[in-house]
Amino acid sequence: QDEQIKIGVSIPAATHGFMGGLNWHAQEAEKRLEALHPNIDLVIVTADGPEDQASDLEDLVSVQQIDALVVLPFESEPLTEPVRAVKDAGVFITVVDRGLTDPSIQDVYVSGNNTEMGVNSAEYMMSRLGEGDNIVILRGIPTVLDTERFDAFMSTIEGSGINVLDDEFANWNRDDGFEVMQDFLSRFPDIDGVWAQDDDITLGVVEAIRQAGREDEMFVVGGAGMKEIVKGVMDGDPLVPVDVLYPPAQIATAMDVTVAHFTSNGPVLGEYILGSPLITQENAEQFYFPDSPF
Amino acid sequence: MVDAASASGSPILSASRISKSFGEIPVLFSIDFDVKPGEVHAIIGENGAGKSTLIKILSGFEQPTSGTIHYDGRQVTLPPNGEAEAMGIVLIHQELNLAEHLTVADSIFLGREITGWGGFLDLKQMREKSRAILDTLHVRIDPDARINTLSVADKQMVEIAKAISRDARVLIMDEPTAVLSVGETETLFEQIRRLQARGVAIVFISHKLDEIMQLAQRVTVLRDGQLIATVGTEALTPDSIAQMMVGRELSNLYPPKHEPDVDAPVVLSVRGLRAPGVKDVSFDLRRGEILGFAGLIGSGRTAVAEAIVGLTRRTAGEIEVHGKPVNFTDVGKSVAAGLAYMTKDRKGRGLLLNVGLQPNLTLLTLKKHIKGAFVDGRSEEQALEKAVRRFDIRARDASVPAGKLSGGNQQKLLLGKTMESEPDIIIMDEPTRGIDVGTKQQIYHIIAALAAEGKSIIVISSELQEVIGLSHRVVVMREGRLAGRLEGAEITEAEIMRYAAGIKQDGDNERISA
Amino acid sequence: MSASAPEATASPGKGFRLDLKTAGPLLALILLVILGYSLNPLFLAEGNVSNLLTRSAFIGIIAVGATFVITAGGIDLSVGSMAAFIAGVMIIVMNWAVDAMGVSVWTVVLGIGCSLILGIGAGFINGFLTTKAKIEAFIVTLGTMGIYRSLVTYFANGGTLSLDSDARNIYRPIYYDSILGVPIPVWVFILVAIVGWVLMNRTAFGRYCMAIGSNEHVAQYSAIKVDRVKTWTYIIQGLCVSLATIIYVPRLGSASAATGVLWELEAIAAVIIGGTMLKGGFGRVGGTVIGALILTAIGNILNLTEIISNYLNGAVQGVIIVAAVYLQRGSLGRRKKAAE
Amino acid sequence: MSASAPEATASPGKGFRLDLKTAGPLLALILLVILGYSLNPLFLAEGNVSNLLTRSAFIGIIAVGATFVITAGGIDLSVGSMAAFIAGVMIIVMNWAVDAMGVSVWTVVLGIGCSLILGIGAGFINGFLTTKAKIEAFIVTLGTMGIYRSLVTYFANGGTLSLDSDARNIYRPIYYDSILGVPIPVWVFILVAIVGWVLMNRTAFGRYCMAIGSNEHVAQYSAIKVDRVKTWTYIIQGLCVSLATIIYVPRLGSASAATGVLWELEAIAAVIIGGTMLKGGFGRVGGTVIGALILTAIGNILNLTEIISNYLNGAVQGVIIVAAVYLQRGSLGRRKKAAE
Ligand SMILES: Nc1ncnc2c1ncn2[C@@H]1O[C@H](COP(=O)(O)OP(=O)(O)OP(=O)(O)O)[C@@H](O)[C@H]1O
Ligand SMILES: Nc1ncnc2c1ncn2[C@@H]1O[C@H](COP(=O)(O)OP(=O)(O)OP(=O)(O)O)[C@@H](O)[C@H]1O
Ligand SMILES: [Mg+2]
Ligand SMILES: [Mg+2]
């Protein structure tokens, strides 16, 4: 057990809130795990895009000569082959969040659940709204996981009689969230609910609603579990009554599991799907990490 | 002439034992020079002799490698970048030195804007003052016009306006008349005499020896960076100056005119040409003929040439080359048809200032130097060698950027570039702009030889002597039209001026020929 | 030959030329407004117009600064990151002040002061590196762009820096309040535009910028302190970024790695749509303001309509930008161009 | 003083200058290699060097094209989006071909042909709009940048376009195989660099590009078909993007809205680090190649070490880029600059 183990962690760079949280959790986990296991060395690399990440993977193998890889692919399809190449070099593979197109590559899979996130958000909407009520949707960046959330949401509310007035991309960015919501507000005199899908967007949306003075007319459902939003839920903010978890801490879980593969007695394999529970005032406390940047 | 007394005081600006090297290359050797208040002191010398370098040192734009400068009796180190203007030393650069996007008024006051209340620009006053200065120069330039819409000559007038608007105690002018025609030159001289009478010291560079005889009290001659002599003008004749300059006798500036063949075929025929700046121009050019184009600034001579070679769109009229109607849409087509145009704007239109001699020389005719698919460096080098010999281009080495050549050598390079295309018909716009007399003579002989060979040449020139000395026939332009056509003995300065100024018109002349 | 003509024609001539120049972008804006209104009449509703103007203030203010940099022949790619960085530091400083001294108006004043110093400093650094170290502006500002973006990510630990909510309540009005019915950010924008216009067109400094952008040698030979003027353009740019940030922070009360991404492209686009040339020599602050309005209006219009797929927003934006510029250069500007 | 000198000095003089000019970026690259090696000796391991070279091929090939555009005084911001768009269409066409005719080598040939046509076409459009419609290159390519990026998002329905796996197996070797121990992308890069160098330095076309970038008027007066040459530079750029895409697609087998983001900035940075001037008139293909290697090496080195926080990667990158350029301009180039 005294041989040195090097584990590479390849994740997207912290370009927006969720990824920022993910980066933070990864670094926290690195500190924690390295302190705990002197023979484990974790190397975190961040990428600005799929091709950048493919390059990172090559470097982790050829230069860092890793024994295991924890990877959150920027996008599933483009990274399937590069991860396979890592696997072919004899490296233990843990895939996080976005599955590869060929699941046989991975040894461990840890993930949030985009579909469940869409479904839970839709179900909450349906619990508060009914026939003839209007909602608007602010989406992220056109990517597979955005599409998964959106499709799941749409198929769930189908037949409920809730009108989706329009959806626009807000790029998981609070400035865009603010501006798109401003425009929705000037366009639609009657909005009952907003699905913002992401807490960065939610923050912008909330400000736009406040500015328009229409807080009492609608509520917002965000997603991910940003600490400010969770705090608001905890305090009973009527405008953002709930949040749907999509935990950035899943990267830490994945790192834990991967380290366990080398430190525990038996091999660690399989899938670890983290749920996307609804965060409500009752359970908010357990999802609140005041030290996290996210 | 201004009385000698005013020029007999002690010098206001003097340089002693000035030497200058650019890197390893020495260009000035221990020059002594001074200028007194109320005096016009001319500097002459061949192209590349170091005139511009000397006066840049006298105005702070270059620092001498050794030697001292005295101003007002005190030894000084002149501040760089035109800051010496504040001390009263003003320089008109040889190369136009205006920012193309600014307006005329902005340019005239650049660096010493008039500000009014609160430090804001007093645009009205700047405009009015600009107009007043331009008025004294008798030029019709709108102070609000942008520099890039002006002709080269107008730009030069703006430069002059800019310089005389400053309160100069020493005014240094580097070939201010190179692009000016007789009229403009005369107004410039009036202004110079006026300033002189006010006690301004003037340093004047020109290759036009008669101008120097007219204006200067003393002349300093430079050759290859050496001071040859400083002498009073009264002791000189143009011939003796020329001899000091070139170091040899300069008889026959103009080659003898061979008898034009009246039956020679017309190689270029222009009928009813209309284009930007051109209103209804018709003329013929015969084989072996030298046709002079005279006229005042902005009379449209350049505009005619540019319309013919396809640089501007013509709106009406026919052009025939060798009897075949042509419509050149770009310069390439006209060059291919054997018709080349040499621009007068060597800096803005003629040469790439940041590259060496070779690429400049062959830019117009690069196709000739293609072997297979590639540019044949050898063949380019040979072309350069030939051009250097033929036009006496003097440069430190072939890699010197064209912008660093002396003004005259730039002009020779441009001439070489145009002649590279071996045209049958050549339109030369101010071909000897800034060229020293020695080389001028060579160029005139080249032009005459070309004509004798059967080439046809249009010479656009503001130097009347040149037009008269070279041309078989002369046309005079005025406000975009042909005002007159002169032949043989009619070709005199007075006659040309009468047409150019509009005192006489084409119709007044009984012998209207095509 | 005499100069009698100019007096008669100069003044109207100038007026006319000025009109024509501003007419290009203005025409494009008017067509865009007509388009917006015909797609959705709400486009001209008071609320939307006010939103639109307020929104355009950020890019507009930054673009006014960029007009100076570009006119003097430079370029600044760092503005977006600089805004994020300044916003981040402002928030950190204000939060620290709240901890140390409690909340008061002075907290906000401190933040604003801090922002101004940073903006001027960052501008100075860009200017210094381009003029004194003689490194191309493109490279310098590409470098500082990366540096500021990294620093704000680092300060925020990859997440978001959020302003203390009490401080925010004091600060909020600067974005959300109106004076005489006009939102404060719009006032700031108007002010910056006027000052910028005056500086560009009515002071020697503006002339120097144009001269330098047009021909640096000429400027230098006219005893203009080229390096100093160029450095000042970057400082003005920094100051504008700082002002934009001061009204940006109260809007959402936060800064993160995502703040100000691509603002540099938008700002440069606004400048060029407005008729300033990328190569320098020719600056139009008025045009820049219109350019910023055009860019903001395009985004707004796209949000107000459902005709086209969301995926194609970027394409529509691209087509409109090109068309807007074509409109002014292609038709009206053709002759002017040819003459140049 | 006379011109007898040229014959004697021209050739060596020219050779020497060339050395000095390439020396700047080369020196920066060498220092970077030393830095990389000292941080981790594996930096120079065969596998890493081969990875690094292969990776630099994309940006390198695109940057060679950009060298022509920039030399002729233009700019192309659309290259990254264009790459994504071409990759997307290639994948769609190849997938369709697989459905229609089954998998064979011809599938890939079809895809490649399609890519070449698109690249040339896209380049032509950029060139046409800048030269004939007289719209600034910055605006044209900003517009097409948005358009291509949107189109690929639209084609992919917001997701990813993936190449059929059988087709991919046939195509794969183009990225992953080696010839004589050198990866195929590196061969392509070498080839493009050589052709580019010859085109720039040994043909009339290259000379024309420099002339146009240096002074468009002089070029026009020298019988150069300015519009045509400029359009060709954009076509060459499009062709280079197409070639880069042809070796990119087999690497990841997919295209999405995220493909090629910011490649334009990297390509322009490589060109400028290599010593070409953003204002045009002066092109150095050799320098561009070194510039691309420098940029790739920086990213690689950052992956080799854990000394600094990941959040600060961008800052380190920025500092190194500025320092690399300073190294060549600041010290070696100072005298040249000052003299100009
Ligand atoms: N900045 C410079 N760097 C290198 N050499 C230079 C520079 N300026 C001038 N020279 C050289 O110095 C010499 C003298 O040039 P100068 O311009 O003084 O000549 P000139 O007498 O004014 O000639 P012209 O009549 O042609 O204008 C020339 O050989 C020229 O190439
Ligand atoms: N492309 C153009 N469009 C509009 N006007 C033009 C154009 N070219 C020339 N002009 C105008 O035509 C007139 C003739 O100018 P041109 O330069 O041909 O005169 P020139 O006789 O060659 O005089 P100079 O001695 O100044 O060169 C000028 O008033 C000029 O402004
Ligand atoms: Mg001279
Ligand atoms: Mg929509």
From TrEMBL, chain B:
GO molecular function: ATP binding
Stated name of the protein: Sugar ABC transporter ATP-binding protein
InterPro entries named among the record's database cross-references: AAA+_ATPase, ABC_carbohydrate_import_ATPase, ABC_transporter-like_ATP-bd, ABC_transporter-like_CS, P-loop_NTPase
Record carries keyword Methyltransferase: no
Pfam families in the record: ABC_tran
Native source organism of the sequence: Devosia albogilva
Keyword rRNA processing (UniProt): no
Family in the record: Belongs to the ABC transporter superfamily.
Keywords: ATP-binding, Cell membrane, Membrane, Nucleotide-binding, Repeat, Sugar transport, Translocase, Transport
Residue span, ABC transporter domain: 13-249, 262-504
TrEMBL record, chains C, D:
Pfam families assigned to the protein according to its UniProt record, in alphabetical order: BPD_transp_2
Topology versus the membrane: Multi-pass membrane protein
Regions that span the bilayer: 26-45, 57-75, 82-98, 104-125, 137-156, 176-200, 231-249, 261-278, 285-302, 308-327
Name this polypeptide is given: ABC transporter permease
Keywords: Cell membrane, Membrane, Transmembrane, Transmembrane helix
InterPro entries per record: ABC_transp_permease (IPR001851)
Chief localization: membrane
Organism: Devosia albogilva
Subcellular location: Cell membrane
Presence of keyword Cell membrane: yes
PANTHER family in the cross-refs: ABC TRANSPORTER PERMEASE PROTEIN YPHD-RELATED-RELATED, RIBOSE IMPORT PERMEASE PROTEIN RBSC
Keyword Transmembrane helix: yes
